[in-house]
Amino acid sequence: MECIFTNTEWFLNWGRKSSIWYLLFASACCGIELMQTGGPRTDVDRFGAVPRATPRQSDLLIVAGTITYKMAERVRLLYEQMAEPRYVIAMGSCANCGGLFQGSYSVVKGVDKIIPVDLYIPGCAPRPEALADALIKLQERMMKEKYLRTVGASA
């Protein structure tokens, strides 16, 4: 079934994709590459992506690095505090599957065991350009979503 958008839906999606407010959760080496994404070479601000300090103002959670079982509860809490619609990017091998430390008893074997993940960025550590590419893919996904409901429509 093909989804047909109204001008209002397109405009709302354009506004959402042009103002992605992200919350960073960097716990290891990927955090260094993550910081470079806001630098002049990659500059994700030009795509409308702006970092926020609180999950209540964020619609994207970027998890970069190793997540231990002790941190897992905090990651879940941050995710639950975000308003809908919310998205998650798992950046790097450690966030994707535990990476180099997956044999450890204290490391979660991927952040998707805790919260739903929308995009995975492979690598150890992935380049800033990979995160910029993931943001562009997320924007493309946002433009295809339909959030408006018609009044009186049956559920």
Biggest sheet character: 5 strands, parallel
C-alpha-based Rg, rounded: 17 Å
> Helicity range of the residues?
25-40%
- What characteristic shape results from the CA principal axes? globular
Low-confidence stretches: none
What structural class is derived from the secondary structure elements? alpha/beta
- The CATH class, by name, is Alpha Beta
Strand content: 5-15%
- Helix tally equals 5
From the N-terminal CA to the C-terminal CA, the straight-line distance is: 17 Å
Number of domains: 1
- Taken in chain order, the helices and strands follow as HEHEEHEHEH
Q: From the coordinates shown, what is the CATH architecture?
A: 3-Layer(aba) Sandwich
Reading side by side through the largest sheet, how are the strands ordered? 2-1-3-4-5
Description of the structure:
The protein has 155 residues and is of the alpha/beta class. It has one domain: Rossmann fold. 35% of the residues lie in helices and 14% in strands. It is built from five helices and five strands; from the N terminus they run H-E-H-E-E-H-E-H-E-H. Helix 4 (93-97) links the parallel strand 4 and strand 5 (119-121). Helix 1 packs antiparallel against helix 5 (128-144) and helix 2 (30-37) crosses helix 5 (128-144).
